[in-house]
Amino acid sequence: MTAPAAFPGGAELFRLSTEVAHLNHGSFGAVPVPVARAHRSLAEEAAADPDAFFLGVPDRLAEARGRIADRLGTDPEGAALVTNATEGAGLALDALRLTPDDEVLVTDHGYGTVVAAAARRARVVTVPLDPTLPDEEAVRKAVLAGLTPRTRVALLDQISSPTARPIATPALLADLAERGVTTVVDGAHAPGMLADPLAGAPDFWFGNLHKWGYAPPGSAVLAVAAAHRGRVPAPVPSWEDDRGFPRAVEYRATADYTGLLAAPEGLDLIASLGADRIRAHNSALAAYGAELLAELPGLAPLPADERLAMRALRLPPGLARTPAEAAALREEIAARLGFRVLIWAWPGGGGIRVCGQIYNTPGEYEGLVTALRPLLDGR
Ligand SMILES: Cc1ncc(COP(=O)(O)O)c(C=O)c1O
């Protein structure tokens, strides 16, 4: 197995602590130095003349949205800037005016806060997906088999968090649309990771810019098909209410908008470094990490998608069966070994997810495997 080459200048673009190896970009992202600089300069501008800054915010948000929509390949009038994926989920579901009897289909790979957003509003039906399902076709069939006559909405991950699986593929979205099911896609990981993040034209799609899009935390997008736009509620009464979607949704009174206004810088940086080049590098690195981890006794790689910068493996049975056990193992790996990875819980035994990013090097994954071996030994 040949180690991929490091991304020239990649590590220097970030100010990550050298105390720990950051192999978990997928959870909270990381902000590159030039984006952090732009963010800071906006904060300084706001501090210097708050009136001038805040009075200009709605128009500047619209301008930032235009740049972001352009990079994502979507219509700026059909997208609103929001603070995170979880908020995007709530707004999408509120637009649908669900009643407690409506069913929302989710899978057991769905993200906790996003599924909880659905459970607050309707009856959630969870489709179990065996993490070892071999391919997209098997996933598609399993989801379709979970539909009932009362399914109104399918709320599906574009890429699942624990298992790094594509679920809401264009083929599945087309099948659901044909059956009259409204599709809401959790694209938290898509911007910056996928070449065509809005593929398949779901009714609603939300994605984080602060994960793979190099934006400051609190930056996300909600994209809405034309038929639903007029029904998306503003999260709070807005001075832009008379302008409707998307301005009323993104201008939520006095708040910190500096992250959202700096967000286009993240996508611009990706474009200037070469989006395809970053994707190829990150995915090769994650694949390298997964191949090394698979050498540890009891670790079983899950089916992988070569486009993605994340890979998942099952841990030996009995480890990380519950969220508390998973969190304890994650913290032990960080504190004792110095590696940040995602440990996910699953009935019977959870798994580990590693990510690849331009600041990572092959040596970090090699070090992880060397350090994990004795820790897992005998568990
Ligand atoms: C698939 C998925 N959806 C939603 C989220 C939640 O993102 P946020 O905390 O920005 O709402 C995450 C975060 O890791 C995720 O992986």
TrEMBL record:
UniProt keyword terms in alphabetical order: Aminotransferase, Pyridoxal phosphate, Transferase
Single GO MF descriptor: transaminase activity
Transmembrane segments: none
Regions annotated as coiled coil: none
Organism encoding this protein: Streptomyces atriruber
Official protein name in the record: Aminotransferase class V-fold PLP-dependent enzyme
Record-annotated Aminotransferase class V domain positions: 61-315
Domain of life: Bacteria
Matching PANTHER family: HERCYNYLCYSTEINE SULFOXIDE LYASE (PTHR43092:SF2), L-CYSTEINE DESULFHYDRASE (PTHR43092)
